[in-house]
UniProtKB/TrEMBL annotation, chain A:
Tagged with keyword ATP-binding: yes
Record bears the keyword tRNA processing: no
Listed name of the protein: IclR family transcriptional regulator
Domain ABC transporter: 14-244
Transmembrane spans: none
Gene3D superfamilies: P-loop containing nucleotide triphosphate hydrolases
Entry keywords, A to Z: ATP-binding, Cell membrane, Membrane, Nucleotide-binding, Translocase, Transport
GO MF annotation list: ATP binding; ATP hydrolysis activity
Membrane topology annotation: Peripheral membrane protein
Family recorded in the similarity comment: Belongs to the ABC transporter superfamily. Drug exporter-1 (DrugE1) (TC 3.A.1.105) family.
CC terms in the record's Gene Ontology section: plasma membrane
Native source species: Sporolactobacillus laevolacticus DSM 442
SUPFAM superfamilies according to UniProt: P-loop containing nucleoside triphosphate hydrolases (SSF52540)
From TrEMBL, chain B:
Keyword Isomerase: no
Family the entry assigns: Belongs to the ABC-2 integral membrane protein family.
GO cellular component labels: ATP-binding cassette (ABC) transporter complex
Name of the protein described by the UniProt record: Transport permease protein
Region of interest (Disordered), ranges: 1-20
GO molecular function, one term: ABC-type transporter activity
Provenance organism: Sporolactobacillus laevolacticus DSM 442
Domain ABC transmembrane type-2: 48-275
Subcellular location: Cell membrane; Membrane
Topology versus the membrane: Multi-pass membrane protein
Annotated TM spans: 50-73, 79-105, 126-153, 159-186, 193-212, 250-272
Length: 331, 276
């Protein structure tokens, strides 16, 4: 891990070493070290079952680590769990609010539990609903909210008393692009007020957009860590996707591209498509020119950021196991 | 969206996030009552959940009184005097299952994780739910009593006997609920919690002295029925309502309640804190 970029005396929101959580025989988290500076956004990037949620649950005092230790906002996770709970808030992967109640009732509930009077609770709830664009839906049951509204009320509930550290577990999974942008704006606003955010995501572009540093997690281990620039540098600056007019030409196209680009060229499941990681984006033009010179007709092409799969392919040499099972790792 | 509009939105967000003073940490009573408030709010949205505390006891009372009463006790009126305290016990005992079901629903929705990560007295979500349940039990009891009085139930213990009987039932129900919180924490779905809990409860409510005097039962069954905490409670409630309560009978109920809490409350709290 590369922690050289941090100054030695920058206070840390999370400081963990050797965290392990075993479920049965599965090492869901298998020796995770973390050093997350306060006031930053830290991204956990990984497929389902990589150990992201389990790590967050341990740091939020919901699960006891089997091994290792951690300090969260300066408090020992194991010895002072109450002090940790006082400084953090958790927004779960699934809406962690009461779907049977209305939006305002949910926020009043949390405000009361945090110690506000009835009157202040109501005021605080309305204020948050307004800020999160939910005032019109205040009296509607949360189960009738759209996916994006649900995530917003969930984050709003975490902000009743602004925590020093907010855990956001896959805040945008399953959301449409517009709702996703709203959540991103909220996260940026949060960090602007001094809250440290630890978010998990399956999307590289989300981590890229939001996170100051990213840890790539696979099978309970951090397999890469750094700024998004550092990560992208290690996996190539972009990926060229090409779709041929004639699938029969694919083998020839692959050979040609390997020659021109000097990088592995992957065949996609689409029989006419192939993709290659580029070291520099302007190589794309050379590649297309070379195909054109050999009269291999291209029906579509795109130059994109590496996807999570491609990051994993580069870092681990195999695609991410993105199965839908719960957190936990197969052996 | 105009930029001006976006600007006010940002300002609102900023002020909502920044301008606040952190309140003092509330005590366990306030947080428990807040959770009770939450549970009662749900009745507003899902009024059907009151069905089990209204419709079922009414149905049971009517069915047993008129269907079996004459055959079991000679006359329906005589049987009602015997049955009503027992039906009250049965109604409330069955309702305790919902404590486990509600807890399990919170776990599967994720609400549970948020509550557990709050800096509050950790049993308060459970205690709050139990307080709200006590309210439901009281409604159920009042309905059964009113129905009984209409049908001809005339307890010689008077209003004091009735109230004391209900209080004793509430104490027992509160203690019994801890079994269902354990089941609610152990099983995967609210449906399975319901199924297992009902399977457990059936023998205890029917193999009891709620419906008939165990005197005519075979001796092995009679031994079970007499040791059954549901029978012990029913006997004590009958005594109170007749105005002939014995300290020993009530003592046994309080003892079995205490045993239930001593065993199942710590297990519940252990599972609650260590739930995956």
């Amino acid at each position: 891990m590369n922690n050289d970029t941090y100054s030695q005396n920058q206070p840390l929101a999370v400081e963990a070493s050797g965290l392990v959580k075993v479920f049965g025989k599965q090492h869901a988290v298998d020796g995770v070290d973390l050093a997350i500076p306060q006031g930053t956004v830290y991204g956990f990037l990984g497929p389902n079952g990589a150990g992201k949620t389990t790590t967050i649950k341990m740091l939020a005092t919901l699960l006891r680590p089997d091994e290792g230790q951690a300090r969260v906002m300066g408090h020992d996770l194991l010895k002072e769990p109450d002090a940790v709970r006082n400084r953090v808030s958790l927004t779960g992967q699934f809406a962690s609010i009461d779907e049977d109640l209305s939006g305002i009732e949910n926020l009043i509930l949390i405000a009361r539990l945090m110690g506000y009077s009835w009157r202040t609770s109501k005021k605080r709830a309305s204020e948050l609903l307004d800020a999160f664009g939910l005032l019109d839906a205040a009296k509607r049951q949360v189960k009738k909210y759209s996916g994006g509204m649900r995530r917003r009320i969930d984050i709003a509930a975490s902000m009743v008393v602004r925590p020093d550290l907010l855990f956001l577990d896959e805040p945008t999974t399953g959301l449409d692009p517009r709702s996703r942008n709203q959540i991103w704006d909220i996260v940026r606003a949060l960090v602007g007020t001094g809250t440290t955010v630890l978010l998990t995501t399956q999307y590289l572009d989300e981590a890229d957009q939001l996170a100051d540093r990213i840890a790539v997690i696979d099978h309970g281990k951090i397999i890469a860590e750094g700024t998004s620039g550092e990560l992208k540098a290690s996996v190539g600056s972009g990926v060229l996707h090409v779709r041929l007019l004639d699938p029969a030409m694919r083998a020839e196209a692959q050979k040609l591209l390997i020659e021109v680009l000097d990088t592995p060229v992957h065949l996609s499941s689409d029989p006419a498509a192939l993709s290659a990681q580029l070291s520099e984006t302007n190589r794309a033009a050379q590649a297309l020119n070379a195909l054109d010179a050999k009269h291999i007709k291209v029906s579509e092409f795109s130059l994109g950021q590496p996807s999570l799969d491609e990051v994993f392919l580069t870092l681990t040499g195999k695609p991410a196991d993105n199965t839908d099972k719960k957190e936990g790792v197969r052996e | 969206m105009s930029t001006e509009n976006a600007q006010t939105k940002q300002d609102k967000m900023k002020s909502a996030l920044v301008e606040q003073s952190r309140p003092a940490r509330p005590n366990g009573l306030i947080t428990s009552l807040t959770f009770a408030w939450r549970a009662l709010l749900k009745i507003k949205y899902v009024p059907e959940q009151l069905l089990d505390v209204t419709f079922f006891p009414v149905m049971f009372t009517l069915m047993f009184t008129y269907l079996f009463g004459g055959a079991l006790a000679g006359s329906t009126n005589e049987y009602l005097q015997f049955l009503l305290p027992g039906i009250l016990v049965q109604t409330v005992v069955f309702t305790t299952v919902y404590t486990g079901v509600a807890l399990n629903t919170d776990i599967s929705q994720g609400t549970f994780d948020r509550f557990r990560s709050l800096p509050i007295w950790s049993p308060s979500p459970l205690v709050g739910a139990l307080i709200a349940d006590a309210f439901r039990y009281t409604i159920a009891s009042i309905i059964v009593i009113i129905l009984g009085l209409v049908l001809g139930f005339r307890p010689s213990g008077g209003i004091i006997g009735i109230v004391l009987g209900i209080v004793l039932i509430l104490i027992f129900a509160f203690s019994l609920s801890w079994i269902f919180t354990v089941i609610g924490l152990l099983l995967q779905t609210p449906k399975s919690v319901m199924g297992i809990s009902m399977t457990l409860l059936f023998p205890f409510t029917f193999a009891s002295n709620i419906f008939v005097d165990p005197a005519t039962m075979p001796s092995w069954l009679r031994a079970f029925v007499n040791a059954n905490p549901v029978s012990i409670l029913t006997t004590a409630v009958r005594g109170l309502m007749r105005g002939r309560a014995s300290v020993g009978e009530m003592g046994l109920v309080l003892l079995s309640s205490a045993i239930l809490i001593i065993i199942f409350a710590p297990i519940t709290m252990y599972l609650y804190r260590n739930k995956r």
